[in-house]
UniProtKB/TrEMBL annotation:
GO aspect biological process, one term: non-motile cilium assembly
InterPro entries (alphabetical): Uncharacterised_TM-17
Organism superkingdom: Eukaryota
Keywords of the record: Cell projection, Membrane, Transmembrane, Transmembrane helix
UniProt name for this protein: TMM80 protein
Bilayer topology: Multi-pass membrane protein
One cellular component (GO) term of this entry: ciliary transition zone
Record-annotated membrane-spanning stretches: 13-35, 47-66, 78-99
Source species of the chain: Vireo altiloquus (Black-whiskered vireo)
Main subcellular location: other
Gene: Tmem80
UniProt KW Transmembrane helix keyword: yes
Subcellular locations according to the entry: Cell projection, Cilium; Membrane
Amino acid sequence: NNTSQLSSLPLQILLYVNGVYYTFYFLATLAMIIYKSQVFSYPDDFLAPDLAVLFLMAILEVPRLYLGFKGNLTEAEAPLGLSLGLTVGSVVLCVYLLLWQTYVLWADVLLNAVLLSAYGLESGLKVTAIAAFVS
C-alpha cells in the first residue's frame, strides 16, 4: 500500500517547536554569557570557548532542523539520519553548556534541560520515522 502517509506529524510539530525554542535558547544564553562576563570575573580565555560553543551549536541547528523537516516530509531516511547525527553533536554542545561552561546559573540548567529533553524526544521520533520509512 503505497498511498499510506509515513511522515510523522508529532515529529514535524516538535521540529517546528524546537526551531522556535532554539531561537529563544540562543538569545537567552547569549544574554546570560554577556551578563556573566560583566558581573563575574570572567577570564578572557574562557569567554571565547563558551561563545564558540554557542555559535557552533546555532550553526549546527540550521541543517539539523532543515534535514529533519525535509527527511520527514519526503519520507526519506537519509536526511533524517543526517539530522539525527547532527542532533548528537548538538547534545554534546548542550551538555558542555550545562556542565562545563565557566559559570552555570540556574537559568542555564533550566534552558539546557528543556533543550536536552526536546532533543531526546525528537531523536526518538526520528528513529521511529526512519524505521517506518525503511520498512
